[in-house]
Amino acid sequence: MSAPATTTEPATAPATINKGAFKAGDGAYLFQLDQLSAIEGGPGYSTAIGSVVEGLRTQVGLMRKAAGTGARPHSHPNEQWNYVVKGRLRVNIEGEPERIAGPGTLIYFPPGVIHSTVALPEEDVLFFVVKDTTHGIAGKAADGTMSGGHYDTPASS
């Protein structure tokens, strides 16, 4: 018996933490992340959008941020890993100096620590995210508002 090479949305999807995410297990073991439907990675504070697959203890996603956009400062109770596949991110982590993360960079965000990431204006960013399942994929904005993602202001000419 062979399983399909990719998993698409089942007729009756099992319950997930994140609405629109895919559930792994019970015959769903291989996923073509770049072909799955996308959800918002941080509604109310981030422009990240991409596919999310949930297992028993971890959830993963392949997310995109358009050039010059990203996440306002926020935190979440679960730890997070971001692996930059394409593009460059401006990374701010509470208590640390700002850094630029390019392709091949692995970023760790501890639980409860305020952080933000913004795609540099030259190109879109593609990153792979891993979080434990103690919370959904999204967190809460540090300023308490859910007024949308970060958008760089164009320089005046």
Structural write-up:
The protein has 157 residues and is mainly beta. Helices cover 0% and strands 37% of the residues. It is built from no helices and 14 strands. It has strands spanning 22-23, 39-40, 49-54, 58-65, 69-70, 74-75, 80-86, 89-93, 99-101, 106-109, 115-119, 125-132, 140-141, 150-151. Strands 1, 2, 3, 4, 7, 10 and 12 form a 7-stranded mixed β-sheet that branches. A hairpin with a 5-residue loop joins strand 8 and strand 9. It is globular and about 45 Å long. The N and C termini lie far apart (63 Å).
Major sheet:
7 strands, mixed
Order of helices and strands: EEEEEEEEEEEEEE
Give the total of beta strands.
14
Oligomeric state:
single chain
User: What structural class do you assign from the helix and strand content?
Assistant: mainly beta
- The end-to-end span amounts to 63 Å
Report a brief summary of the structure.
The protein is mainly beta and 157 residues long.
Secondary-structure blueprint of this entry?
Elements: E1 22-23, E2 39-40, E3 49-54, E4 58-65, E5 69-70, E6 74-75, E7 80-86, E8 89-93, E9 99-101, E10 106-109, E11 115-119, E12 125-132, E13 140-141, E14 150-151
Parallel strand pairs: 1-3
Antiparallel strand pairs: 2-3, 3-4, 4-12, 5-14, 6-13, 7-10, 7-12, 8-9, 8-11
